[in-house]
Amino acid sequence: MAIEDTVTVKTQHLSLCCLLMLIILSACGDSIEQDKLLNSVKKAEPGPALSKARWYRDEQLLRGETLYLTHCAKCHQADSSGTINWNIPDEQGRYPPPPLNGTAHTWHHSLDVLRRTVKRGGIPLGGWMPGFADQLDDQQIDDILAWIQSQWSDEVYKIWQTRNMHSMNDAMKTK
Ligand code: HEC
């Protein structure tokens, strides 16, 4: 065997070894990455930890859900999904009840505007949602809004929070 041939065989052998090592190493790496991913998914599950980063307290959610089901669900649906074609008006130009679950327009409004909408309803703005000022007090309205916002994804909540930092800070003060 010529010297060059021996060198080639050795190099091939070496690169095969390297390749095997790489595969083994990356397989190990994968399972570590997967563990990390699984842990972070477990941590991201909604619950007390999640609502700590939001303006409301956990105990508001149960009260809010009951009030929501009593006063709002008949128009906005029990799961707050509202109407699919919420931005298409009917023949009389009336818009149907929109989703409140973060998929439509609701996250454009500050907490103050949301409170006012529930209190006064949509009639002063040319809509037809009734106002609830004579049926719900401020605490009850906040509980309902807390429950509604608990339906929002973290992404939507964060965008809302950034847009409405001012009224958010006020809400934290009165918490
Ligand atoms: C009789 C049906 C009806 C009831 C009951 C009702 N809504 Fe509405 N809601 C509407 C309609 C319709 C609109 C769209 C604006 C309008 O026409 O007034 C609306 C709009 C809203 C908006 C503004 C959403 C946006 O994306 O701008 C919020 C917030 C809201 N409702 C919350 C509530 C809450 C909270 C309750 C219960 C306390 C409630 N609604 C009860 C029909 C209703």
Question: If you had to describe this structure to a student in words, what would you say it looks like?
Answer:
- By secondary structure, this protein is mainly α.
- The protein has two domains: 1-45; 48-173, Orthogonal Bundle (Cytochrome Bc1 Complex, Chain D, domain 2), CATH 1.10.760.10.
- The protein has eight helices and no strands.
- α3 crosses α6 (138-150).
- It is globular and about 45 Å long.
- It binds heme C.
- Heme C is lined by residues 71-72, 74-76, 95, 97-98, 100, 104-106, 109, 114, 117-118, 122, 127-130, 132, 144.
List the helices and strands and how they pair.
Elements: H1 3-43, H2 48-51, H3 58-71, H4 73-76, H5 111-120, H6 138-150, H7 154-163, H8 165-173
Helix pairs in contact: 3-6, 5-6
This protein binds heme C.
Heme C (HEC) binds next to helix 4 and helix 5.
Task: Report, as a whole number of angstroms, the end-to-end distance.
Answer: 85 Å
Largest sheet: none
- Indicate the percent of residues in helices: 55-70%
Mean pLDDT: 79
CATH topology of the largest domain: Cytochrome Bc1 Complex, Chain D, domain 2
As for the number of domains, it is 2
Q: What order do the SSEs take from the amino end to the carboxyl end, as H and E?
A: HHHHHHHH
In short:
Helices cover 60% and strands 0% of the residues.
Name the features.
175 residues, mainly alpha, Cytochrome Bc1 Complex, Chain D, domain 2, 0% strand, globular, binds heme C
